[in-house]
Every structure is written in C-alpha cells, then in structure tokens.
Amino acid sequence: MSNIQKHCLDQSFSVRDALVKLDQLAFDTILFIVDDSMTLLGSLTDGDLRRGFIKGLGFEDPLLKFVQSNPSFVFEGEDAVDKLAVYKAKNFKIVPVLNSDKKIVDIINFRETSTVIPADAVLMAGGEGKRLRPLTENTPKPLLKVGEKPIIEYNIDRLAKVGIKNINLSINYLGDQLVKYFGDGSSKRLNIRYARETKPLGTIGSILLVEDFKHDDIIVMNSDLLTNIDYADFYKLFKDTNADMAVAATSYHVDIPYAVLEIDGTNQVKSLKEKPRYTYFSNAGIYLIKKEILKMIPQDTFFDITDLMDKMIEMNLNLVTYPINGYWLDIGKYEDFAKAQEDIKHIKI
Predict the structure, then answer these.
(1) What is the pLDDT of residues 82-92, one digit of tens each?
(2) Residue 164 φ/ψ, nearest 5 degrees
(3) Which of 16, 10, 8 lies closest to 60, judged by CA?
(4) Alpha-carbon distance 95 to 75, whole Å?
(5) Measuring CA to CA, which residue among 73, 157, 153 is closest to residue 112?
(6) Beta-strand (E) ranges in the chain?
(7) pTM listed for this prediction
(8) Phi, psi at residue 36, to the nearest 5°?
C-alpha cells in the first residue's frame, strides 16, 4: 500500500472509519482528508477527534467538522529543503506533497525520507571494472556486493532517502544485469531508466543519452562509490552559491618528514616550515549540475567530466567545491573492495 493510500481518507467516510484507519497507522497517526479529486481539505489526528468530542461533536457528524483546515504541506517540485527542515525540527512525521491544484500527489514520511531535493540523478554504471577482475568477469562492478547488497544499491537508496525519485543509470558492460536487478524501480517506489552506451562516452558524455530530465538540477555520480555524503547540505551549498556546478571533494593529506624551505625566484629563503602537512582536495566523483550546462557536452563523443570542468573554468562559470566531511571510498581496486567489506560493518551508509 502506498503512503497516499495509507494517509488519505475521503471526506465522505465516517468518524468511526477515521478512528479505525488512525489505529492501523500506529506511529504515523495522521490522516489527510480529501475530496473525490484528491484535493486536500484538512488533516486529522487522534487529538483532533478527541477535541471534537469534548466540544460536543459525535460519531454521526461529518469528518470536516473535526479537521485542521490549514495543514502544512509542500508543493511538488519546489525547493522545500529548508521548509522540510523546519517541519522536522517541529517533530512533524508526515507531510503531504501537493500539485499546483492542491491535489495530493505524494506523502513524505520522515522515517523513510529525510528531505526532498528537487533534482534528477544519473549514475555512471557502464565501466568494465578491469582492476577488480576476476570479480567483474561475469558481474558488472556496480552489482558487486558490499555486505548485504550491491555497491550501486547503497547509492540509489541514499538518493531515494533525500526524495530523488527519477534515477537514470548509464550502462554498457553487462548492463542487462543492472536492468534485470532494478527493473523500472517500482519496487523501491522510484522511476529508474537506462541510458545504454553503444561505445564508451567517458564519464559524462553518456548523460546526453537520457531523453529528458524533470528538474533543472541533476546529481551525477559514479556508481562504484561508498559514501554517506550529506546530499541536503551539498544541495544547499549548490543553491546558496548559485553555482553552475558543484563538485564534491575529499581531503588528501601529505605529511613532509623534513623541514621545508620556501624560496623566491632568486633562491632567497623566505620561510622555513618544520615537517609541514599539506592538504589537497580531490574530485570525489559526485556532482550537482544545472541542466543548461549539458549544452556544453558534444554529442556522441567521448567526453569526461574533467573536460566539462575545464570548459567551465575557461568560460569563467561558477564552479564550486563541496568538502565531504563524512565517509567516502572509491572502490577501484581489490584493496578498496576488501576495505569496503570491513568498513560497512562499522559505518552507516
């Protein structure tokens, strides 16, 4: 049963019907009262019914006499990340999503979805994973299991957790196995589609094989990453900086075991640093991109995401970085795969 079916009740039903349905909802005890076209009329909780009975209402009175007529909600497609954060802080558990006609089109349950980021996603899953052979001789690298499930499934589930429902998988090598495993995504209440390469198109070129995007912003990521990146915070930085692209980055430290002399062009020593540590930021393979930037990618051509970034820098577009403060692992080599098997026992992805 969908969340809409669980939490919506037509105004024609009785008070007793509402009590029965609220009792079945256990921890998520709120109903949204609708008309026959699913227009939101109000919300109803146990407390609303109790207060109605105290005022003298009875089981034969219409439900609309008990409801809260101005329930909180968000609109479909709006940037509601901040609004939903406020609702969570107020201990809301369930929030309806309305279309422009105020008809309920979805229900957000904060036990299942932490927020709703208005973006589509593309996961690059077409590589051969040669460095992991023989593990990848008959299985595409994204479907190799880490712990209880495939690498790519952790990423898909985390995207779903932040309300991203339109997910595209770019596939090539053994791609039919991915199609068979995920299907159309309906088992996860997602819309999963496939962009199939007929030849290698690089780390971003295959995005042009996606027929259309619903939203103006797109999360693009490698499918063989294991990470607990805070997508909501990543998206907030992307929007707050009005970036054309945001690149997630991981820190890499280099410790120099000697004193370092800093000199000028005439070999004059200007400073001395004793065993310094230098910190560099590396591309983590996760990006937020404005859809209009895709126009810069050539059709049917091998094109890497770094090529796109170089173009953006040349054109002085707004390219920003987002440091990942949590866990991140690129599963490229067998040593990385073995590390992932141990890490997954101790971290929450």
Answers:
(1) 999 999 999 89
(2) -90, 115
(3) 16
(4) 10
(5) 157
(6) 8-10, 31-34, 40-44, 74-75, 94-98, 104-109, 120-125, 145-146, 149-150, 166-171, 191-196, 217-222, 225-227, 245-255, 260-263, 269-273, 277-290, 319-323, 328-330
(7) 0.86
(8) -70, -5
Instruction: Name the residue among 165, 152, 170, 200 with its Cα closest to residue 331.
Output: 152
Supply the DSSP symbol for 178.
H
The string of pLDDT tens digits covering residues 61-90 is 999 999 999 999 999 888 889 999 999 999
Cα dihedral 166, 329, 115, 323, rounded to 10, equals -110
Helices 46-54, 15-24: axis angle to 10 degrees equals 150
For 13, 18, 26, 151, 179, the CA distances from 61, given in Å and listed in that order, are: 11, 12, 24, 54, 52
Task: Rounding to the nearest 10 degrees, give the CA dihedral for residues 147, 153, 159, 163.
Answer: -110
As given in the structure block, the two tokens for residue 151 are: 């690498």
For residues 284 and 331, give the distance between their C-alpha atoms in angstroms, rounded to a whole number: 12
Token look-up 């930021």 returns 281
R_g of the chain computed on alpha carbons: 25
Distance CA 119, CA 306 (A): 22
Which of 268, 223, 212, 219 shows the shortest CA–CA distance to 248?
A: 219
Secondary structure of residue 211 in the 3-state scheme: coil
Tokens 């090539």 locate to 172
Q: Which of 273, 285, 279, 276 is nearest to 247 (CA)?
A: 285
Nearest to 44 by CA among 28, 134, 168: 28
